[in-house]
Amino acid sequence: MNKHSLGPALRALRESSGLEAKAVARGAAMSRSKLSKIENGNTAPSVTDVDCILTAIGVSDEVKAEYMAAAREAATEATAWRLIRRLGYSRKQQQVQALESQTTLLRLFQPSLVPGLLQTPEYVRAVFARRRLSEAQLERTIGARLARQSVLYSEGKTFRFVITESVLRWRIVPPLVLVGQLDRLISASRLPNVDIRVIEPSAPQRDFPGHSFSIKDDRIVTIAYARSGEEMRALIGRIRDELLREQETA
Questions:
Q1: Beta bridge partners of 216
Q2: H or E stretch including 234?
Q3: pTM of whole model > 0.90?
Q4: Of 71, 75, 135, 229, which one has the fewest beta carbons inside 10 Å?
Q5: Dist. CA 128–CA 191, nearest whole Å
Q6: Measured distance CA(175)–CA(168) in Å, rounded
Q7: Residue 227 DSSP symbol
Q8: Which letter, b or e, does each residue of 199-223 get, where b requires 16 or more Cβ atoms within 10 Å of its Cβ?
């Protein structure tokens, strides 16, 4: 169970108990309208809300423990995002940098953007320009993200990136700027401790990812078939040449 399914799961739990919404709302000391918004996923319930709803339904201790764990996880994530907004994205970049400095092996899959550790300054600007930051905040955030990239040159650290081919073609920057970003990927891939792999859309896969993820140090992950080494660099080079030809004929 995750934060998005918590509300509907509470509704299913209530319905399976045979209790009407107005009875559970009354027992949980909340309005019928609030309970409806929670059950429909329109309002995120607090930990206390979930506790009161479960008590009103009368679930077992085991079920209550499962639902309360999901509620606490959702509350923790929401608090983290409020903290990011308050402190600023530059501070968040500094926190990530501190974590990366303590990581020996970083494995990251990214299906939508070039990984932050591999982004050019222009690409970083394009990513954060959508966050409605002031120019001063934007500059601090760009500087903080670029500062993270020095970890790529640290001894004793290994980086393994897997990205989809669509990342290489996603036009969040003008074509010539994207060419520079592709050159950056090719250059970084030649570092002895950096392994970059690209998943082609035509390659057969057994499953598909729902989101990006990273694995630090001793963990296991199943990844899709991806181009690596010279094959990967050749693929990026072909996309780069396509962009340049497009500019020549524009």
A1: 106
A2: helix 229-249
A3: no
A4: 135
A5: 27
A6: 11
A7: B
A8: bbeeeeeeeebeeeebbeeeeeeee
Q: Which two tokens stand for residue 91?
A: 């501070």
Q: What is the pLDDT of residues 107-127, one digit of tens each?
A: 998 888 999 999 999 999 999
214 - beta bridge partners?
108
Q: How many residues does the chain have?
A: 250
Cβ atoms of 89 and 128 within 8 Å: the answer is yes
Cα angle 154, 126, 164 (rounded to 5 degrees) comes to 65
> Which of 101, 214, 228 shows the shortest CA–CA distance to 155?
101
Instruction: Provide mean pLDDT across the span 71-86.
Output: 61
Beta-carbon count within 10 A of 68 CB? 14
Structure-block tokens of residue 67: 């639902």
Show Cβ contacts of residue 203 under 8 Å, excluding neighbours closer than 6 positions. 224, 225, 226
Every domain of the chain with CATH number 1.10.260.40 lies at: 3-87
